[in-house]
């Protein structure tokens, strides 16, 4: 997909996740035994044929850098283009975190100017889904929209919601409160490079930093906003309890079938671990066990990460063990 360039926002470390993100960026949070959160959207980009990806980082990104490296495991290690880490700081106060996406984009404006493709997809790096971005781009072009916003059926008030008419044109953007008939924003957008640069310049000049407030709400009467409704599995991690619940959902076969598609594989860093050893008398029921483990006890309804040892006599039930 030569006309689409990918930008991922990976500058945030969510304090609501406590110890899980204290030493790391949210996007490098381990998930599902062998993955990191960044793997899902980065793989969605690559599966759509995107060969140029910019990863905006700010602080606590050492573990993210260790994981993605040069992008080789996603076929993004290239002499021209490929994966580019964009360490950036806010222009106004370099000591703090970015206040919003428009402020982060203003910090990499020179990078955006050098983009070779006509269209840009913007997304949070911590979104768990397997998204057909090629289909999203086709609908964006067909609709003639200025910005296509990907959303999921819902409107439960926990995230930004969109109201739309029958042809998918967004009529209102609601930040708080349950919306009857609305859809939950997944914060994935497709926009032309030309318009993106215009919005960066306008928002930077007026000290506007929020994509939701300044662009989607503030310019909804100027811009044609179109909704693409994604009906596959999609999740975001917003608390420790939420992390546990979303992880346990992976034990359901229908969730795994929707997330891990043969035609759109989820890639991760290759560690070439040895196969897991299951000792005599060990049991493993309804669990995800990664390579490199030694299982000599009992494992049930659990997710076991690489290198874990469950000794004889131990029973692990309903747990996530890193």
Question: How would you characterize this protein structure?
Answer:
This protein has 322 residues and is α/β, with parallel strands linked by helices. The chain is built from nine helices and 22 strands. It has helices spanning 38-47, 62-68, 101-107, 109-113, 133-143, 193-205, 211-217, 240-249, 253-259; strands at residues 4-9, 30-31, 35-36, 52-57, 82-87, 119-124, 128-129, 147-153, 161-164, 170-174, 183-192, 225-229, 234-235, 277-278, 283-285, 288-289, 294-295, 298-300, 303-304, 309-310, 315-317, 320-321. The strands form six sheets. Strands 1, 4, 5, 6, 8, 9, 10, 11 and 12 form a nine-stranded mixed beta sheet that branches. Helix 3 crosses helix 6 (193-205). The relative contact order is 0.15. The model has no long low-confidence stretch (mean pLDDT 90).
Structural key phrases:
alpha/beta; 22 strands; 24% helix; 322 residues; 9 helices; nine-stranded mixed β-sheet
Gross morphology is globular
| Backbone structural class | alpha/beta
Q: Largest sheet, if any?
A: 9 strands, mixed
Strand content: 25-35%
In round numbers, the mean pLDDT is: 90
Q: What's the alpha carbon Rg, rounded to whole Å?
A: 20 Å
- Quaternary state of this entry equals single chain
- State the helical fraction: 10-25%
Please give the alpha-carbon distance between the first and last residues. 37 Å
Flag low-confidence runs.
none
> If helices are DSSP runs of H or I spanning 4 or more residues, what is the number of helices?
9
Counting DSSP E segments of at least 2 residues, the number of strands comes to: 22
């Amino acid at each position: 997909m030569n006309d689409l360039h990918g930008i991922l926002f990976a500058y945030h470390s969510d304090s609501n996740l406590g110890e899980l993100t204290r030493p790391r960026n949210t996007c490098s949070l381990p998930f599902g035994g062998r993955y990191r959160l960044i793997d899902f959207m980065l793989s969605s980009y690559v599966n759509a044929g995107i060969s140029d990806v910019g990863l905006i980082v700010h602080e606590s990104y050492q573990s993210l850098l260790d994981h993605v490296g040069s992008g080789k495991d996603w076929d993004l290690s290239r002499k021209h283009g490929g994966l580019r880490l964009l360490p950036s700081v806010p222009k106004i106060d370099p000591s703090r975190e970015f206040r919003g996406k428009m402020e982060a984009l203003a910090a990499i404006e020179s990078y955006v100017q050098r983009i070779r493709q006509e269209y840009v997809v913007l997304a949070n790096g911590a979104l768990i889904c397997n998204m057909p971005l090629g289909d999203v781009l086709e609908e964006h072009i067909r609709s003639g929209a200025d910005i296509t916003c990907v959303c999921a059926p819902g409107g439960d008030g926990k995230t930004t919601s969109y109201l739309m008419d029958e042809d998918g044109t967004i009529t209102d953007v609601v930040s708080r409160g349950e919306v009857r008939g609305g859809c939950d924003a997944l914060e994935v957008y497709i926009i032309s490079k030309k318009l993106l640069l215009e919005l960066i310049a306008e928002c930077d000049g007026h000290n506007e930093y929020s994509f939701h407030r300044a662009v989607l709400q503030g310019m909804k009467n100027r811009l044609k906003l179109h909704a693409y409704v994604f009906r596959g599995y999609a999740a975001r991690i917003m608390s420790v309890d939420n992390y546990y619940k979303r992880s346990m959902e992976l034990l359901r076969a229908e969730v795994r079938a929707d997330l891990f598609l043969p035609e759109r594989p989820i890639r991760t860093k290759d560690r070439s671990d040895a196969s897991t050893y299951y000792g005599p008398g060990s049991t493993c029921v309804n669990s995800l066990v990664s390579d490199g483990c030694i299982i000599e006890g009992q494992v049930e309804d659990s997710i076991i990460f690489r290198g874990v040892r469950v000794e004889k006599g131990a029973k692990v039930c309903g747990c996530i063990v890193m």
